[in-house]
What we know:
The structure holds 2 protein chains of 2 kinds.
Chain A: H1 2-10, H2 13-37, H3 44-53, H4 57-66
Chain B: H1 2-17, H2 20-49, H3 65-88, H4 93-98, H5 100-105, H6 111-144, H7 150-177, H8 181-201, H9 212-223, H10 230-261
Helix pairs in contact in B: 1-6, 2-3, 2-6, 3-6, 3-7, 3-8, 3-9, 6-7, 6-10, 7-8, 7-9, 7-10
Amino acid sequence: MEEILNELQSVRWDLLAPIAIVSFVLMIVAMVDCFKHGKTNGPQWVWILVIVFVNLIGPILYFIFGRRSE
Amino acid sequence: MKQWTILFKKEFKESLRNFKWVWIPLVFILLGITQPVTSYYLPEILKNFGGMPEGVIMEFPMPTAPQVLAETLGQFNQIGILVLVLAFMGVVAGERNSGTNIMVLVKPVSYTAYMLSKWAHMTLLAFVSYLSGFLIALYYTYQLIGSVPASDVVSGFVVYTLWLLFVTTIVLLFSTIFKSTAAVAALTLGLSIILSLLSSITPELMQWSPGMLASHSYYLFQTGEANDGLWLSVVSTVLLVVAMLSISVYIFKKKEVATHTS
């Protein structure tokens, strides 16, 4: 147990945290756009699920394929 | 010039509204963070989860800082370019299909200004995303592994910028030629993959090719010196970019005149 705790402490969390922050920001931006813009290819609720549950690439998939312009 | 500025602002606003200015840089930043981090932790990950039999001693050497930068550019080259191409495949074709470009083109707007504003905006967005991802990667590499001489970093960065410029120009060209955005994406990605593959298989024959630029920038990171044929591929890329731009403007004019007079 102690060993695991030590190893966890040696991980550079300050450098790993930005990954979580950036992907969280991406998720929020995609969610806001999905609700406000409202026009999607396919049902909107599926895209909300994709944005929230598909890790990292969900929001990107929404912006590329899910968002309908005009 | 005034027209161009207005059109450029229009493009810029549109991309702000559909969040392209947010999510594309964020994707590059994410790539720029994850690559150095995975390179750094890979030996440990393999040690813990590799399922190595007891007693097997394997030493995984820590990658050098230039190597990590080159790997990051490799990520940009795959996922980064994929994202850029998919984001911009409809730059001309999409507007033509939905008919929104008519709203702009009924006014006395020069076709050249219209196309150049699109190209400039697309290139600027690609460049800013690449720059932010690269700076983050540089910071992480410095924190985790070590430093690379600044001059090597800058020259490698500039050389790779040219390759991105080449790719965005292909997107514009194909987007003017083809109606379907899927064809634009598939052909651009296919062409860039073929160019990169050919230049790694037969570097001697491909000295002129823009596909060599990526490996030239890796070489610059590693050694700080220009590899043979760097200038040849730089010059040919610049010429190709100018040629493709002129061809796309020409094709666009011809197509638009044809649709408006018929």
